[in-house]
Design a protein that fits this description.
This protein has 697 residues and is an alpha/beta fold. It is built from 24 helices and 30 strands. Pfam families: ATP-grasp_5, CoA_binding_2, Ligase_CoA_2, Succ_CoA_lig.
Length: 697
């Protein structure tokens, strides 16, 4: 829910602006802020503060902040970091509604700067004034002809795109690249150091805007997981795709992200899994980012799912795109026989009417063939998207642009136009047709198309905004100290409804002999001080008689004395052997960014050699737990392979939910949990946690 602090209408759609530190010196940032407002044609009221000038660019100057009128929507602060707090206090007296601090010299410079930044954060929170920055290049709302920035951003095409960036330089690069393919941003936000308003505050606000169709962003790290989670939910509830270039994924990249904007890059695997499971579109570079925004903005989402049709004048380009489609898991449609018959009627006899459709170079002599081919292919019921590839031949193909634009406008299917190797003059003529989604090469087109198709496919059948079910376990307020041994860990798991083997802790051979056991048994030494017990002969399996149980007990005690003579045992755990099944690992950790998080992995060789794991912040609901399970690389093992039956996936999902609720209850007192393995039995027979370790602070 938006509060006064993150209701950003006054910052992103201001009706009045003041500039503190305005300057008539054209070399200074204070001048550029003023000249940008003048040049873009901002229609709101502008107030400048600088006692040395009467006016700058025809805007009146005030001697002091105290002379300003009350309730100005937005104030741009361009003074040294040492003077900022004094300025903020004066602005609070004038009851300003939002502030942008453009100066640098804060957390990115070290301890002293971090202290100044914390004072800004405290001010923003206490006064309920949203603050952008410091160390930002500013914001813009190009449709409303407003720019609060010293950058050289110029208005471009008017598209319903909002863009938020944690790097001013990468943000302006993305803006430039978008202009090159004929799209423009409605909103542009450089979040800077985020002392007051952070990246996901902007995302949350923009998700609710009716004038935004898609949101793009450059993200180094989230500062507040709850804000990120709520913002992403708002995007889904408002049907706004979120396309992120998330960087800082490598160890060195994370270090660079921290030094760049004092952001915490967080655990890369958790980011990857969290964004994937929440259907956020991840892109790997700046071009894929802007290309994907273009396809979201300029193409429709077909009601009926199908495959892609590839129409080219080059067999080679068709092969490239087909290969890329396979890599990106896009189905290349099998065209209907009726479609092929119609194509044979309009194309040369030596053309290929299979998909990809190769019109051949003959179309250079008869450009109308291109339009006929596109129209016929789009009518195929097996096709939901079409990529048209042409190369060079600038003048001859210009004639098809009006009709191609009409098709793009009227079709209920996606159409992407790749016209490669053309002159700048020809490109400008293409971009004048605003309904055409133009991407300059086939690989980029398929990458962007893949991202958009995947987003809409994953969204089908999901109702965002529905109230989630309540917990499946009773909420508890628990704290643990130190490391729990296996017996203690399993007793805690049992409290949350997780099945563990039937067993008992014993402290003497007399205890063993006095019990009535159901064989076969497993026997383990129990101690929170000893790891890897099986390496020291402290675990005995498949014990099938009282006599063998006595011998196993004695062996464990002898091995313990030999290997760990000074470490005390808490006892010996005797349990019934769990039924066979497929092994998985469930773990938990407390991540710096995401807080308590659940890890799921395939057991045995899969986790050790293939690193087949997925991690997600807790708590999870049943749907999210199932998505986690299905995102494992070797998920098919759980479905049943090589004559093995499907295992109890539904119960595994329920157990993951129960464990996620447990670690939420444990809060900061838990640092790590390891249930290795959980045995997942055949469908209908549940799961068993056969080993467990919980480590507290």
């Amino acid at each position: 829910m938006l509060t006064k602090t993150n209701d950003l209408s006054s910052m992103l759609s201001p009706k009045s602006i003041a500039v503190i530190g305005a300057s008539g010196d054209k070399r200074k940032i204070g001048y550029k802020l003023v000249s940008n407002l003048k040049e873009i044609g901002y229609e709101g009221k502008v107030y400048l503060v600088n006692p040395r000038y009467e006016q700058i660019e025809e805007y009146p100057c005030y001697q002091n902040i105290t002379d300003l009128p009350l309730n100005i929507d937005l104030v741009l602060v361009s003074v040294s970091s040492a003077k900022v707090m004094e300025v903020l206090e004066q602005l609070n007296e004038r009851q300003v509604r939002s502030i942008i601090i453009l100066s640098s010299g804060y957390a990115e410079t070290g301890e002293a700067g971090a202290k100044l930044e914390s004072e800004i954060s405290k001010f923003s929170l206490e006064k309920s004034i949203p603050i952008c920055g410091p160390n930002t290049i500013g914001v813009a709302n190009f449709k409303e002809r407003f720019i609060a920035s010293f950058s050289s951003l110029k208005p471009a095409a008017d598209d319903s795109i909002a863009f938020v960036t944690q790097s001013g330089a990468l943000g302006t690069l993305s803006y430039t690249l978008s202009k090159e393919i004929g799209i423009g941003f409605h909103y542009f936000v450089s979040s800077g150091n985020e002392a007051g308003t952070d990246f996901f505050d902007y995302i949350h606000y923009l998700a609710g805007r009716q004038d935004v169709k898609v949101i793009g962003g450059y993200l180094e790290g989230a500062r507040d997981f709850n804000k990120m989670d709520h913002a992403i939910k708002a995007c889904h509830e408002n049907k706004k795709p979120l396309v992120l270039m998330k960087v800082g994924n490598s160890k060195k990249g994370a270090e660079a992200a921290t030094s760049h904007t004092a952001s915490i890059a967080g655990n890369a695997e958790i980011y990857e899994n969290y964004l994937e499971l929440n259907n956020i579109v991840r892109v790997s570079d700046e071009e894929e980012l802007t290309d994907t925004l273009a396809v979201f903005t300029k193409t429709v989402n077909p009601e009926k799912l199908g495959g892609v049709a590839l129409v080219t004048q080059s067999g080679g380009a068709g092969i490239i795109m087909t290969d890329r489609c396979e890599e990106r898991k896009i189905a290349v449609s099998e065209l209907a026989n009726s479609t092929k018959m119609k194509l044979n009627q309009v194309l040369p006899s030596f053309a290929s009417v299979k998909n990809p459709v190769d019109m051949t170079a003959q179309v250079a002599q008869s450009p109308e063939m291109i339009i006929d081919t596109v129209e016929i292919t789009l009518q195929d019921e097996n096709v939901d998207s079409l990529v048209l590839y042409l190369q060079m031949t600038d003048e001859k193909f210009l004639t098809i642009l009006p009709r191609l634009s009409d098709i793009a406008k009227s079709s209920n299917k996606r159409l992407i136009f790749c016209w490669s190797g053309i002159s700048e003059e020809t490109k400008e003529k293409v971009l004048k047709h605003r309904d055409i989604c133009w991407i300059p090469n086939p690989t980029r087109a398929i990458n962007a198309l893949s991202n958009v198709r995947k987003y809409y496919r994953n969204n089908r059948g999901i109702e965002y905004g529905k109230k989630e079910k309540t917990r499946i376990t009773d909420e508890k307020h628990l704290k643990i100290n130190g490391t729990l041994n296996e017996w203690e860990s399993k007793q805690l798991l049992k409290e949350y409804g997780v099945t563990v083997p039937k067993g008992k802790m014993i402290t003497s051979i007399r205890d063993l002999e006095n019990e009535q056991w159901t064989f076969p048994l497993v026997m383990k030494a129990v101690s929170s001080k000893i790891e890897h017990k099986s390496d020291y002969g402290l675990v005995e399996l498949n014990i099938n008689s009282h006599e063998k149980a006595s011998r196993a007990y004695k062996r464990i005690m002898e091995n313990k004395k030999a290997c760990h003579p000074t470490r005390e045992l808490d006892g010996i755990l005797v349990e019934e052997m769990a039924p066979v099944g497929t092994e998985v690992i469930v773990g938990a950790l407390n991540d710096e960014t995401f807080g308590p998080s659940i890890m799921l992995g395939m057991g045995g060789v899969f986790v050790e050699l293939m690193k087949d794991v997925v991690i997600h912040p807790a708590p999870l609901n049943h749907y999210q737990a199932l998505k986690m399970i299905k995102s494992l690389k070797n998920y098919q093992v759980l479905e049943g392979v090589r004559n093995k039956s499907r295992v109890d996936i539904e119960v595994l999902a329920e157990v993951i939910v129960r464990i996620s609720e447990m670690i939420i209850d444990l809060g900061d007192s838990i640092t790590e949990l390891d249930i290795n393995p959980i045995i997942v039995h055949e469908k209908g027979k549940g799961v068993t946690a056969v080993d467990a370790l919980i480590i507290g602070k």
